[in-house]
Write a structure and sequence with these properties.
Layout lengths: L4 H18 L4 H8 L3 H8 L7 H11 L3 H8 L11 H7 L5 H24 L20
Length: 141
């Protein structure tokens, strides 16, 4: 991805256009689903406009992709280091249907969130040793 802001917006627009094509949505239909005007979406796709994070979120929701994916494309967020963008690869696959793509993305993201939760619950470092009080012997008798 380019560091030149003009190139970044052009790349973002191309990415949105590519995702719209994969979703088999017309420009008009995506603009309706995203709640933005048709000319404004066209200008975003051509790299002429710099959409806000809120507009990107609306477009992502309409395309059924993560807003984070668009934020990374726009340079709002940094791409995760060391992990491939599997979501983007799934969405770009022309051999499977939109429903199949969405199912795969949902499953993948649920596994990622589950693993993130497990990592957060896992203590770091050696386990703590807890001394328990001695057990009293039952009374004789």
């Amino acid at each position: 991805m380019s560091t030149d802001p003009k190139d970044r917006w052009h790349e973002l627009g191309s990415f949105i256009r590519e995702q719209r094509g994969s979703a088999r949505l017309s420009l008009r239909r995506l603009s309706e689903l995203a709640g933005i005007s048709n000319p404004y979406l066209s200008q975003i796709e051509r790299g002429l406009r710099r959409p806000s994070a809120e507009i990107l979120q609306q477009i992502a929701k309409a395309l059924r992709i993560s807003a984070e994916t668009l934020y990374v494309q726009a340079g709002i967020l940094e791409a995760p280091v060391g992990s491939p963008d599997l979501t983007r690869a799934i969405l770009a696959d022309q051999e499977i249907s939109e429903e199949q793509k969405q199912a795969l993305v949902r499953i993948y993201l649920s596994f990622r969130h589950e693993n993130d939760d497990e990592e957060a619950d896992t203590p770091t470092g050696p386990p703590a040793i807890v001394a328990l009080p001695p057990v009293a012997a039952p009374p004789a008798g």
